[in-house]
Amino acid sequence: MHMDQKIFTLHLPTETVSCYLLLTGLADQALPLNRETVATLWTGEPGALETALEELHRQGIIGIPETPNTPLRLLPSEMWGN
């Protein structure tokens, strides 16, 4: 999945957009989209990562599974905001 330019039109906080870009970069490299991998690469505060992930989930940009070890899912932009 490639980064969708629509992310820049949603007026989301910088940390949220950064988190999305990190997730799409991992996906493009076929690396796991789990919290552990993302947290290892995140350069901001851990709390900011959780806030960004929750905002992406609220906006319908990612799916967060209920099981902690299950990968996050990037959702198609047609589903965003739904």
CATH architecture: Orthogonal Bundle
Mean pLDDT over the residues: 92
Task: State the major sheet.
Answer: 2 strands, antiparallel
Taking the alpha carbons of the first and last residues, their distance comes to 20 Å
Structural class: mainly alpha
Tell me the layout of helices and strands.
Layout lengths: L13 H15 L6 H7 L4 H13 L3 E2 L9 E2 L8
Antiparallel strand pairs: 1-2
Task: Give an overview of the whole structure.
By secondary structure, the chain is mostly helical. The protein has one domain: Arc Repressor Mutant, subunit A (Orthogonal Bundle). The chain is built from 3 helices and 2 strands; from the N terminus they run H-H-H-E-E. It has helices spanning 14-28, 35-41, 46-58; strands at 62-63, 73-74.
Summarize the structure.
The chain is mainly alpha-helical and 82 residues long.
